[in-house]
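agent> Task received from the user: take the single chain below, predict its 3D structure, and emit structure tokens. No templates, no multimer pairing.
agent> Plan: (1) validate residues, (2) run structure prediction, (3) serialize to tokens, (4) report one or two observations.
agent> Step 1 OK, no nonstandard residues flagged.
tool_call: predict_structure(input=
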Amino acid sequence: MSKAVDRPDDMVPLAREGAVAVLTLNFPARRNAYCLQMRTQLRERLEAAMADAEVRAIVLTGAGGHFCAGGDISEMEARTLLENRERWQLVSALIRLIALGPKPVVAAVEGSAMGAGLSIASLADHVVAARDAKFGAAFVKVGLMPDMGALWSLQHRVGRAKAREILGLARVFDGAEAHRIGLANELAESGGALPQALAVAHEYAALPPVANALLKNALAQGVDSLDAAIRSEVEFQAAAMASADHAEAVRAFLEKRAPRFEGR
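)
tool_result: status=success, residues=264
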């Protein structure tokens, strides 16, 4: 197979739909396998979208009827411990961009969402899954630990016991089951995940960007106790109340008009 077909130059094209940036995992010849080139370009595109003041929300989707079939096994060659640690610095940056970046991220999942695909979806703020999508995490079957933040994100989505089952037994399950257990927020019919995800992203885009960013950061830090929740309120609510977005919301309410949020 030719290089042009097998490995597109742009594995994560970025498109815009109003205030929503759409990032497409684009390696259809291998069901969007998560290779080094894709990781590198995904980080670049996410950094650009997160820094773009005109972008209010981000959609992650996949080309060719699949989300992401997991790591590219053809790249799983032997490396030294130092080389592996350097490689994972890139992965760590991606995890933080999706989980902690200031813009809401919505995943539109069709077809395969295996391994790294499941991990990426779990990190998103909102997941729309096609009813017949296939989820799974086969890390242990190839002698590896779960990665791309799945040890943290999956527990937060489905609970510790279910996360242990998914990661430890490597069973495959469909989109309907993903929705039932809380991995997916919404269920779509086959082929309908992207339009539904775009609708959610536009909902996010209409909300105050500063409040969205602060809420995302507070939830990622965790509020598992009352004391932790109070500390988060002191830290984040003080910032929210000082934002221009909050002042605009108050003015718009008093003037009986729609607010115009600028993300300041």
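agent> Step 4: summary for the user.
The first strand starts at residue 14 and ends at 17.
agent> Done.
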